[in-house]
Amino acid sequence: MKLIFAVMPWHALEFPCLASGILTAVAQERHPEWEIEQLYVNLRWAEHLNRVSAGAFSVEDYSLLGNEFVYDLAGEWVFSSAFLGVDKSSISAYRAIFPGTSEQFDKVLYAYNEAPEFIGCIAREIAETKVAALALSSTFTQNVACLALASAVKKISPQIVTMMGGGNCDGPQGMAIHRNFPCLDFVVRGEGETAFDQLLEHLASGKKSFFAVPNLCWRDGGDTITNRQSAYEDMDAVPRPEYSAYFQHLSNSEIQAYIQPALIVENARGCWWGQKHHCTFCGLNGSNLKFKSKNQSKAVDEIEALAAKHKTLDIVVADNILDANYFEEFLPMLKARNRDYRIQYEIKANLKQPQIELMYAAGIRHVQPGIENLSSNVLRLMRKGITGARNAQALRDLEASSLTVSWNYLVGIPGETDDDYEKIIPQLPHLYHLQPPRAGATRVSIQRFSPFFNDPKLGVSTKRPHAAYPLIYRLEPQQLAQIAFFFESAPQGISDAMVGRLQAEIDKWIEAYNNGAQLVFNKTDDGVQIVDMRLFGDPRRTALRTPAELQLFRALRSVISRDGVCGIVARNAGCSVTDVELTLKRFLEAGWIFEDEGLLIGLPIDVSPNRSISSDTRARLCA
Predict the structure, then answer these.
(1) In CA terms, which of 108, 368, 469, 552 is 20 to 30 Å from 73?
(2) pLDDT on residue 387
(3) Mean pLDDT for the chain?
(4) What integer pLDDT is reported at residue 621 of this predicted model?
(5) pLDDT at 622
(6) pTM score over 0.90
(7) SS3 content of the chain, % helix, strand, coil (to 5)
(8) 610 CB neighbour count, 10 Å cutoff
């Protein structure tokens, strides 16, 4: 028996599909009666668009639709033409709500018009192979592409069994998808390894009843049956993913030259912070918030094995947060292997400098630290468990260790006020030497499973599915509300005018950082020299020599309160509190300190030999 696992747009082109890789490995280990083929339809789609447009629709355009406009459901709307048919009224309606430029909409429309023929071609190809089953995994904007393919395959070969799982099938979404779309025979909610394993066994043996398969939605006499939720998967029992099909396809692809492939690995599921204090805006993990991780030695061995097999050192870790225990064995073991890994990881921003240095030594080069905002009050409203000053310290220490950083400046939090930003905006020029939020100021979206969605007391009392959903599903409002992941509400928090002010300052920050802004220090024979190159022009050099200056500078390497710092420094320096207060005032006026709610953090970065800056810049800083 043959099963095709189709990886649909808009899965990233740069790495294979984790779900497909794991479930293929499950089938290969436990079900020799099944032949599993992975079909990377996402790569085929990017190739198709690039080819038929003669290069006008590029790999970058694919990534634009798949990443930048996720929250606007552009990718879902594109494949609605293949699922529901091309509709002129839908085109005009979506154009009216699309937030991008007219040139960007032209790209979206081009893909919309190409989708029906493309899906039809893939469906005929699948049907002609005489497969027994088609498996699909849907996360974010893959839903409609999956439904379009399942529907097209069923029209050609109704006997082919269709099944779908993934993040878009969790909780009530999975039940509603199965109930509304007969083109899917089975839908798996939540984790899929056990369900997939047992479903393959039932299908191979010809069983007609599926009550025993956990997490499964299926039909009995035309009615949707929703089976019990299973216990969480044991991460150490999850097999190493099988990625050969991806790398084989890419090696022969006409767009190969435009893609730098990476591996994707999974060391943990859930979120240990979210278990204690679920961030109010976060809808990730769905019903699977409970944190669990792999044995640390096993996690290292899997990375080693995959890197050796596929000859790539670029690795994306799918975990929503780095296991705090991984500093004990996992990272030291990776460091000891002495590979030139380039690993991406999501972390919590409260890490200490030695931990950051260990991450770099282990091969982590890019992090997403979940900074989200620089106002302590707004961070409290988010339940982030961190202060604005501590976030600024994280940006400083990550920059000092040469890790690249991705973060968003989230706004629109119920309860925030313009005053929260009036205190921060004047300080943003002080941060020009640290990595900016390149996506800019972004109003938070209301996501299913988030506390904002589940608890009206947090400030979002009314919400509705995103305006694009009626265009891509054509279902009754009640059904749309169960399928939707992204929701809209009345604007919360700060005014649009304040968002505009913040965005304008972030734009200046991005420009300054891109132009090599620096604020560094180096130790001299008689003290410390601070070199300021945050604005255009020659470096400004300041020597710190007095006991008050040097003790205050050292105290500000960690977050410290304004109320306590002057007394502590005065005692250590053997000087008066007044002297320290005057020195502190001078440091603040120079923009060497970030302050929020009475907490202070020094901003200059040590010019260490390991920091990745150009030789020309280093020469100017150290002259």
Answers:
(1) 368
(2) 98
(3) 95
(4) 54
(5) 56
(6) yes
(7) 45, 15, 35
(8) 11
Would you tell me the crossing angle of helices 244-251 and 41-52 to the nearest 10 degrees? 20
Q: Long-range contacts: 438-442, Cβ < 8 Å, 24+?
A: 438/406, 438/510, 439/408, 439/409, 440/409, 440/503, 440/506, 440/507, 441/409, 441/411, 441/499, 441/502, 441/503, 441/506, 442/408, 442/409, 442/410, 442/411
Q: What is the 3-state secondary structure (H, E, C) of 517-561?
A: CEEEEEEECCEEEEEEECCCCCCEEEEECCHHHHHHHHHCCCCEE
Q: How many CB atoms lie within 10 A of CB 90?
A: 20
- Residue given tokens 């190809």 in the structure block: 125
DSSP-derived 3-state class of residue 452: helix
The span from the CA of 359 to the CA of 363, in Å, is 7
Phi, psi angles (nearest 5°) of residue 78: -55, -45
Helix 547-555 vs helix 577-589: angle between axes, to the nearest 10 degrees? Answer: 60
Question: CA-CA distance, 254 to 56, in Å (whole number)?
Answer: 15
Q: Which residue has the tokens 């000053």?
A: 389
Grade residue 608 by pLDDT with cuts at 50, 70 and 90. low
Tokens of 185: 């025979």
The residue to which tokens 């950051």 are assigned = 356
Rounded Cα–Cα distance for residues 138 and 162 (Å)? 13
Helix, strand or coil for residue 488? strand
The SS3 of residue 312 is: coil
Tokens representing residue 589 in the block: 């006026």
Owner of token pair 């690039």 = 50
Residue 387 φ/ψ, nearest 5 degrees: -100, 165
Q: Which residue has the higher pLDDT, 222 or 384?
A: 384
Residue type for 82, please? A
pLDDT tens string 106-150: 999 999 999 999 999 999 999 999 899 999 999 999 999 999 999
Tokens of 495: 């005014």
Q: Are 290 and 275 in contact (CB under 8 A)?
A: yes
Q: SS3 for 131-194, per residue?
A: CCEEEEECCCCCHHHHHHHHHHHHHHCCCCEEEEECHHHCHHHHHHHHHHCCCCCEEECCCCHH
